[in-house]
Design goal:
Elements lengths: L2 H5 L7 H8 L11 H11 L5 E5 L6 H16 L4 E6 L2 H18 L18 E3 L7 E6 L11 E5 L5 H5 L1 H15 L13 E6 L7 H8 L2 E3 H9 L9 E5 L27 H11 L1 H8 L30 E3 L2 H4 L4 E5 L12 E11 L4 E12 L1 H15 L4 E5 L6 H11 L5 E4 L5 H4 L1 H8 L3 E5 L7 H12 L14 H15 L10 E2 L4 E2 L7
Parallel strand pairs: 1-6, 1-8, 2-4, 2-5, 5-6, 7-8, 9-15, 10-13, 12-15, 13-14
Antiparallel strand pairs: 3-4, 10-11, 11-12, 16-17
Helix pairs in contact: 2-4, 4-5, 10-11, 16-18
């Protein structure tokens, strides 16, 4: 430990000195965290009570808020009650133990020198020894905190995963937990100043906890709030200060750090090129939400016309998503994915749509190739005959995969195919998410120009490609009972393939004649 720190009588006199001390003078707050330090100091002074922080993952927000600020607050307010929550009890306990250990080592160098109560060894909470009465309770979101008042509440990442954030049930439970268990616990601090509540998390949905709060309670932008506070003003105690730190700046006027447009938040951690790559890997919808703190309606990022065409037309010559069937692509391992969700479970005279997409994946360069699509509308027996004929024509080297949804004909078909085509590779996969979420990987590929339709020459009939693209453009992401579209079986079969290859990244190697800087694939006659 640095001798100068040891000689400092009260390392808790300011948050920056405390932060450096508990990190043994090896780290200091990052430049982007300076506005956070300012707003936290205003909160301690009683000038702001509610703070909401959105920042990309792995950018040091938890270290600053949970480790440094919470422990610093406790040693300077040793009679206050603190509640710290996270998405699970295990994670909250981890933070609580870290804070306890920090105070145990560095508390004796603070102004009030609080000591831990020796007979209080629970991991989920700890208390200070007399004459102080301060206490920290660590609890998972939705955990039991009844009866525990709080002068400071820190909520760190209350939602673990995107799938949780999408769940309407989870959203409702989170709202009930916040209103019934958190907001009602807040009490004026022992020094008479308003309580402090801090929510720090990456954004995961329009109706994550930040979104729920912003819908229901007054808020003010962090940049505007700091201007008011720096001029001697006070933010009303029922008003949230929303501090968003996007990975890439939106421009000087909007950015709380006044960074020029597209300047990285922490360039030594992720520079501009890293973030551009990250956008391609995540797709715009996820990148805007997680990295930029800008969750949008999921329907805003359905398939766009300009991902497939060079102009507004639907002409063959305008297609920007076709590639030649050169040897390296033609000889790649292929898989045919069938979607039969619209096919009636019981044999009827009704015609039902079906789609079987023949796909291959260049895992080295993250490109998905569509070789053909069997698509039409037939009665159940007719669909089964198409499938049988296609399996034989595809041959033994092509794996046949069915997306098996409840209530569809696929279960009956599979039983018959397993019995009569045992020499072929046939398997089924069961979707676990709604249509919209299953389409995200396919959308990511399409947006990056990595969804390609394979043709033998420019003289080929392109109608099947236009049909597939039109269905992609019309896709609204809704399940069949709520969709305005008659069918989306092509989208479903393509999505099933994209997700299958994502989970099996070892499948597919290609040495095609690709210009990977531009993302183009050239026809042999175009190459000198």
């Amino acid at each position: 430990m640095n001798k100068q720190i040891l000689q400092n009588k009260f390392i808790s006199d300011d948050l920056i000195t405390w932060y450096k001390a508990i990190n043994y003078d090896m780290y200091k707050p990052l430049k982007w965290q300076i506005p956070l330090l300012r707003i936290l100091n205003y909160a301690v002074q009683g000038k702001v009570s509610r703070i909401m922080i959105s920042a990309p993952p792995q950018h040091g927000k938890t270290v600053l808020i949970c480790d440094a600020f919470t422990s610093w607050y406790m040693v300077n307010n040793p009679n206050d009650q603190v509640i710290l929550t996270a998405y699970s009890q295990q994670r909250a306990t981890k933070y609580g133990v870290k804070i306890r250990d920090i105070i145990n080592v560095f508390g004796k160098q603070s102004r009030f020198k609080p000591q831990l109560k020796q007979d209080h060894k629970l991991k989920t909470n700890f208390m200070f020894a007399p004459p102080y009465t301060g206490e920290l309770l660590a609890a998972g979101s939705h955990g039991a905190i009844m009866g525990n008042p709080a002068n400071l509440v820190v909520i760190d990442d209350p939602i673990k995963e995107l799938s949780d954030a999408r769940s309407p049930t989870m959203q409702e439970n989170l709202n009930d937990w916040y209103i019934g268990s958190i907001d009602t616990r807040l009490r004026k601090r022992n020094n008479g100043k308003p309580p402090i509540i801090i929510v720090v998390a990456q954004r995961l949905h329009q109706r994550d906890l930040q979104g729920i709060i912003l819908e229901q309670e007054p808020s003010i932008d962090g940049k505007e709030a700091l201007e008011i506070l720096s001029n001697g003003g006070i933010i009303p105690k029922d008003t949230w200060v929303y501090m968003n730190f996007p990975a890439l700046s939106l421009g000087v006027e909007q950015d709380i750090l006044e960074r020029p447009l597209n300047t990285p938040l922490w360039s030594s951690h992720k520079d501009y090129n890293d973030l551009v790559t990250d956008r391609k890997r995540k797709g715009t919808y996820r990148f805007e939400m997680i990295m930029q703190g800008n969750p949008t309606r999921e329907e805003d990022y359905i398939f766009r016309h300009d991902w497939f065409y060079n102009d507004e037309s639907y002409d063959d010559n305008a297609l920007s998503c076709i590639v030649p069937n050169i040897k390296e692509i033609a000889t790649m391992p292929k898989f045919r994915f069938w979607d039969l969700a619209g096919t009636s479970k019981k044999p009827t005279k009704q015609n039902d749509y079906y789609a079987g997409s023949l796909l291959s994946k260049d895992a080295n360069h993250d490109m998905l190739f569509v070789h053909d699509i069997k698509h039409g509308k037939k009665q159940a027996l007719g669909v089964l005959n198409v499938i049988k004929e296609t399996i034989v024509n595809d041959g033994y080297k092509v794996n046949t995969i069915f997306e098996q949804e409840p209530g569809s004909q696929s279960t009956i078909f599979l039983n018959e195919l397993f019995d009569n085509f045992s020499e072929y590779d046939i398997e089924s996969i069961k979707p676990t998410e709604a249509k919209l979420y299953r389409s995200y990987e396919l959308k990511r590929l399409a947006e990056n120009g990595a969804l390609k339709f394979v043709v033998d020459s420019m003289d080929d009939n392109m109608d099947w490609i236009h049909t597939a693209i039109r269905e992609l453009e019309n896709f609204d992401g809704k399940d069949s009972n709520g969709s305005k579209n008659k069918h989306d079986d092509i989208v479903d079969s393509l999505s099933a393939g994209a997700n299958y290859f994502k989970l099996n990244e070892h499948i597919g190697i290609c040495c095609a004649l690709l210009d990977f800087d531009s993302g183009d694939v050239y026809f042999p006659e175009d190459i000198e």
